Amino acid sequence: MPKKIKIEITESLEFLRNEHIKAKGELKKDRLKVLIYIKEGKYHFQSDIAKKLGRTEKTVREWIQEYSQSGLSSLLKVSSGGNNTRTISDKALELIAKKILDVETTITSYLELQLIIEKELGEKIAYGALYSHCKRKYKSKLKVARKSHHKKDEKAEELFKKP
Questions:
Q1: Burial of 4 (0-12, 13-18, 19+ CB in 10 A)
Q2: What is the pLDDT of residues 21-32, one digit of tens each?
Q3: Secondary-structure breakdown of the chain: helix, strand, coil percentages, each rounded to the nearest 5
Q4: What are the strands, taking DSSP E only, across 122-162?
Q5: 3-class SS at 45?
Q6: Hey, is 97 helix, strand or coil?
């Protein structure tokens, strides 16, 4: 038989609900829901809360232990995210901004931009890092129209165009 939850939630139910509304991210919201369910007395077992939230019983148990040992602020601190170090230098960022925001730029692809950075600064930047930075920061779409076929008949094309 599962263990009953024997923990005293010090925060008021109204405070917990307000924090739940303000919380960003599913992980924080679920952690607050655990406290709300316990405070309301809706669920008396960790397994019931785990099923309701779609989490494992071990996860809910760890959250409750974290709250009882360190409090609410520690429970809401999410320490996932990994190593998120920047791969593009400040000089390269300035050059990218200058090239992309220039109205009279002749850059037609991210590969070309990558080569310009390598030539001017001597830095090698991974294509994926450059592409994602440009898309995220500048919402850029370096697209070029496809080349026309060398056998294309200009007179036949006129028939398909609307008047």
A1: exposed
A2: 998 889 999 999
A3: 60, 0, 40
A4: none
A5: strand
A6: helix
